[in-house]
Amino acid sequence: MVGIALLGAGIFAREEHLPAIEAAENLNLLAIYSRSQKSVDALASQAKSPVDKYYDSPSESGKSLDDLLARSDIEAVIVVLPINNQPEVIRKAIAAGKHVLSEKPVAKDVATAKELIGWYRSLSSPPVWAVAENFRYTESLVQAAKAVKELGGKVVTFHLKKYGYVKETDKYYNTEWRKVPGYQGGFLLDGGVHFIAGLRLLLGAAGEQVSQVASFASLLVERLGPVDTVHAVATTKSGVSGTITMTFGTEHKSGLEVEVVTTNGTVTWSQEEVTVSEKSQKFDYSSGVKAEVAVFAKSLESKTPDPLQTPEEAFEDLQFLEALLESKGQVKAIA
């Protein structure tokens, strides 16, 4: 069993990562850390077995993050903290010799991600650093990617459509760091990176990769700033064009769909349905987090991250998303 600590005690840590760790056959949850004792206490009370608690406030000897990272029985950590806080904690954990699974996005922007990944790759024999993207492990998306590959043919076009509305009562909106985001894109970065990962996975199954975009970002709902909507045309390296619409500001329209059209047929994906040339298969909703954490746990045996969890894979999601946010109607290359 691998001793692991959960760094973060927010909504996603509570609802997804805690159950995923406890479901993993070879992980043993030993500790939880958060900035406040109150949030640590709340999450620890939900754990199936007793865990040690670490926090910054109130300050207490032996209870800091550094104290947790100094423990030899903790071999790995899962980092589920606000976007702007993650890089520093990732560095600390890796420097302490801990294997890391950090939540998406890999960083708040491409520049920060490049620096962090460059630092990591400069290390000699570092521990495993994997970056989470749970959409890549949902059963429906895995099946859709398989269907695209089996369908074959040349890609003709594609689209990503995500419509939704973040209500004032939304549990995620009511976390302070999301209400006043200190990073680009607001919910388009925090949530939109999932949908970009889904599109990239399906296009990759057809041997395609988006190389440039031309987009317009806008703000439909003032409290969801800096922007909540983007419309774009995307072009692959082979010259195939498709469209992207993502919005968190349409109160009266919702839905998520990625579609890839080839010369042999069409694959359409939503979270609970995959349609291959008009033949549909239904799926139960799954976040993919349990599968994602299980894959990370397995990767610790070989000390090699799953290809879908490398920092570079997460970097490509972020790079794509940042290009959409920065294009302003001009063609923006995705290096």
TrEMBL record:
Gfo/Idh/MocA-like oxidoreductase N-terminal domain residues: 3-117
Domain Gfo/Idh/MocA-like oxidoreductase C-terminal, chain residue ranges per copy: 153-327
GO function terms (MF aspect): nucleotide binding; oxidoreductase activity
Biological process (GO), any one: NADPH regeneration
Pfam families the record matches: GFO_IDH_MocA (PF01408), GFO_IDH_MocA_C (PF02894)
Transmembrane segments: none
Gene Ontology cellular-component annotations: cytoplasm
Gene3D superfamilies hit by this protein: Dihydrodipicolinate Reductase, domain 2, NAD(P)-binding Rossmann-like Domain
Annotated protein name in UniProt: NAD(P)-binding protein
